[in-house]
Design brief:
This protein is mainly alpha-helical. The protein contains 21 helices and four strands. The two termini are 30 Å apart. The C terminus is likely disordered.
């Protein structure tokens, strides 16, 4: 009898077939940056004041500035107040009373706002996301993050049921459908509904593409392949800066960011299903045909005897969520990882969603934020080799938190300093996120790994939901959001000192294995590959690229 891992070694665990798959899966990753961060450019600050069309009913020969001075009070700097207006005079008021400012009682804007800069339509000026409605821009981001959580819950089991390829095709269809529909919404409430809807397939794709790629790539290159695939998301952030700079009309921007998905219709034929999933489902003939195709593309000869002996892989006993809290050591690890994943997301999105708040040009800052993520992904793998998982996780969290705290003390007239600190923080939080995936998968035993990774991912999504709402606290003091984004990662980072080191350790299979004393082994990639292939374990979403701790 032969298991899929043996067949994969025979046909090539990272040949031309896998490279083609890597490219295919990287394209939607590239495009997903638009859905996650595109809204940041649609709600930029813009001068506004109360609409006072009623005054134009009076036939007075006054300039626009004089009209404005009669209807809107000025702030200390001599600029029109953005959210209040003088109460309109009664109909029987005389012109003298009117010009003498005798009606100087104020009230909130009740007839909309004017935007004198004449910018192209944006979410802010079309749906009046100002004054008592300013919170809606953060609320809509939280709604989107809620959709990401819903997508993880929906597509997790759905992908195992209908397959990796079918799930991805469905997700791409929903990308296009909801993305294009968003461009034509008549109200902001409907816009938020569409944001929630499009977040569901975006979230589903982030796990499904990891599963499909990991199930075709062998352990020798699995980590590198998945890091490279995820790096295309950083490239998408760079392209997003250029798209937002070139297209300022929010509806055209929405269309331009979505239309490329329609060009991926050929995935219906080009994208392969996971042969490992087909084998697990007992669809052996389909799996064998796909394996033969992969062998042909890779230029490898596959033994007919080995293929004929292919059988579904045996699965060991599984645990449940309660097992994470029954064992003292596992309970401690689980609770700390809850905190780690929560602050991973809090710090990452806290910096990313405030890309325009550091004083420099938002488009340039977004470009740099995208650039810095590429080396951050790869540098994290070297950090784990050099310093181990525990100290790498601790260091990235503390560094990211310290950068957020430091930004608070930078004077407003030094935007370059604030931006540099934010870039360092973005580098640290991105590296920390990558390390968390590897470290968490190594800490959870095999029998409970998928359940554990699913739970920590939920805490990450909850933090994503709360992050935009934390930004609203700047209404009370502008430093509060950064204090939260900085202090919580520092605290969670220090907790990592209580976690065991996993570098050079065999991965635990059962909860009982946690009782065994760790024994360091030499770092030998070859032996790791053989051990991983022999085990024949099926990687799952979120942990798929962690097949061995020997790197």
């Amino acid at each position: 009898m032969a298991q899929f891992s043996q067949v994969l070694a025979e046909i090539g665990d990272f040949g031309l077939f896998q490279v083609q798959l890597l490219v295919l899966l990287s394209v939607p990753n590239f495009l997903s940056a638009f859905y996650i961060f595109g809204q940041v450019f649609l709600v930029l600050d813009e001068t506004h004041y109360c609409s006072v069309a009623w005054i134009k009913n009076h036939t007075l020969n006054l300039s626009d500035a004089e009209w404005l001075s009669l209807t809107v009070p000025l702030d200390d700097a001599g600029n029109p107040e953005p959210c209040i207006m003088f109460r309109p005079p009664p109909d029987n008021a005389s012109i003298e009373d009117f010009l003498g400012h005798r009606f100087n009682q104020t009230q909130p804007c009740d007839r909309g706002w004017d935007y004198p800069e004449g910018r192209p339509p944006s979410l802010k000026n079309e749906f009046n996301l100002v004054c008592d409605r300013r919170h809606l821009k953060e609320t809509s981001q939280s709604v989107y993050m809620t959709g990401l959580l819903a997508g993880a819950v929906i597509f997790g089991p759905l992908t195992d049921w209908i397959g990796r390829k079918t799930s991805i095709l469905l997700q791409l269809l929903l990308f296009a459908l909801f993305g294009l529909s968003t461009a034509f919404v008549p109200s902001f409430d409907l816009y938020m509904v569409m944001r929630f809807a499009v977040a569901i397939p975006v979230s589903g794709y982030t796990t499904t593409n990891v599963a499909l790629l990991a199930e075709w790539v062998g352990p020798s290159r699995r980590t590198q392949a998945l890091v490279l695939c995820q790096s295309s998301f950083a490239l998408g952030q760079m392209a997003l800066a250029g798209l937002a700079y070139g297209i300022r009309n929010w509806r055209l921007f929405q269309i331009a960011g979505t239309v490329p998905v329609l060009l991926l219709f050929f995935y219906l034929w080009a994208l392969p299903e996971s042969a490992r999933w087909l084998v697990a489902r007992g669809r052996m003939e389909e799996a064998k045909q796909l394996i033969q195709k992969a062998a042909s593309v890779n230029g490898r000869k596959l033994s007919p005897e080995l293929l004929s002996q292919l059988v579904p892989e045996e699965t060991g006993p599984s645990g449940n969520a309660l097992d994470l809290f029954r064992h003292p050591q596992l309970r401690k690890v689980t609770l700390i990882l809850f905190c780690v994943w929560f602050v991973d997301s809090l710090g990452y999105f806290g910096l990313s969603l405030q890309v325009g708040d550091f004083g420099m040009d938002i488009y340039l800052t977004q470009l740099i934020f995208g650039i810095v993520e590429v080396p951050a992904h790869f540098f994290s793998t070297f950090m784990m080799q050099w310093f181990g998982r525990r100290w790498s996780q601790l260091g990235t969290l503390v560094l990211g938190g310290l950068m957020c705290i430091a930004i608070i003390f930078v004077p407003a007239d030094l935007p370059i300093v604030s931006t540099v600190l934010a870039i360092i923080g973005k580098f640290a939080t991105t590296s920390g996120f990558t390390i968390s995936y590897v470290y968490s998968a190594e800490l959870f035993p095999t029998v409970i790994r998928q359940t554990g990774m699913g739970l920590v991912a939920i805490f990450s999504r909850v933090a994503g939901i709360l992050t935009p709402l934390v930004m609203l606290l700047d209404h009370y003091h502008e430093a509060i959001p950064m204090v939260i984004y900085g202090s919580l990662p520092i605290g969670a980072g220090l907790l990592c000192a209580l976690l065991p080191e996993t570098r050079g350790q065999p991965m635990k299979d059962t909860i009982e294995d946690l009782e065994q004393e760790p024994h360091a082994r030499p770092v030998k990639l070859v032996s790791s590959q053989k051990e991983s292939e022999a085990s024949g374990g099926t990687p799952g979403p979120g942990v798929a690229f962690v097949s061995s701790t020997y790197f």
